[in-house]
Design a protein that fits this description.
Length: about 500
Amino acid sequence: MNLGTAFPPLSVAPQNLSCATNALDELASEMSRFYSTSPERLQVVRGVAHGLELILRSALGKDLAFVTAEDNQFEGLFRVYRTRFLKVQPDEPLPTGGILHLVNNPRLENGRAWEAEEIKRLAIDIFPTMLVVDESYFDVCEAPSTAEVAAHLSNVVVLRNLAYLSGEPECQIGALISNRHTIQNLSRFCELNPLSCGSLKQALCWMTPEGCAELLARVDTLQSEMQRMHHVLQTSSHPIDHDLHDAPFLVLRPNGLLAVQLALKDYGLKSYLVSQGLLVPLGDRPTNDLILKALGISLSNWTGRRKKAATHRRRTRQQHVVMIGHGFRIRLGLPGPGPIEVRTGNGIFDHLIEMMAQHGDFSLQMVPDGSSSQEEPADIRKAFSAVVQAIHQARHIRDVSVSSAYTTALTGNTVHMSMQLGAIPRCRFDIDFERASIGTVPTSVMPTLMDDLSQTLGAEVAVWGDGADDYEKMVACFKVLGVALKQLGAP
């Protein structure tokens, strides 16, 4: 589906990038990191239509019908490949024998994301028909992508597109994701250079750490704005009947629907009449404020009348940082509790970082962008440094002294920490461990981690403590660190 974009074009411009023969492989590698998959499971395409075209090319000579469960815009493409087009309503039984069955994720009819088990059952039911999942607007969804199902079933293909987040509605840069065998088969029908030189340079620019950070920041903005819009529409003086999609859309059912659609058009905003109401793509805050203005909602009146209630929303003062570095993709929000997900490849170390986030009062999502194990001290240092750098970016850290202590209730292990910001960066670590490692985390790495902390924050750090339980002492180190970081400053 192509519903346009409510974002301005991404501000990152291509510089010093070439169209060398290995540039496409480099782009595939970077896009696989962005979409959390592996390069051998991804084929770079010019968007959803090009991905469908590869499947149709692979089926040439087969007298099969095209099957879709939702409205689509690709009927002209099917005619070119002499493929019969058949539209099936969601509540109808699925016919068999088609080349492919196209669905949108999230669904168009109700805005809800597909569950992995639903996609799996559907793919098995229609096998060998190819199940194609259009995830052009999935980036903002908190549900898991169906790409994981595609890793295990050869007849599942997921199509992604960068048009919405990049702010380029005519963007012809996307990805086809499936399992390795299916990618090898479909790549035989792809052009040697599927992207123009300009598109290739632009895509490589978007996949740089700076470009990815801006794309992911837009995801975070959308998630925050979706909740804000829902709240405003519910609590305005004249509440608007609406549905909030898992994708960045609202379905509005206002009084005078056509008048609202004309008002949106006057503001340069797109909207689409669907069976449930008026479908409106969401964007950044200025764009969404125009949507509210078209609905006749005065933000000044709304915020004035409900200012006290609004200040209790968790996102009102929360600072969000999105960062890609040291082999990890990190999304951090503070102050205030939130979801904590850490995947470094080392279960014990994951638990330690989670304890730090919990006691530091910040949300944290940390996912590796590569496949290397994190069981060696050097890799643990990279993971730890990535989190500390994200915290340093998020907090307005002042030149202050902080101190904290943590004592375990059962064993009585006690760990103290003090930090002097603005001092000469140096570290004193005075805790003895009898064991060489706690699980897969060497105890010898602890002084190194604290020294890295002092260098990143520009602080004099001291850690000391005692106790008989090495595991509890190591956990206490990260808990007391979280408490200390919480005191450093607020965004």
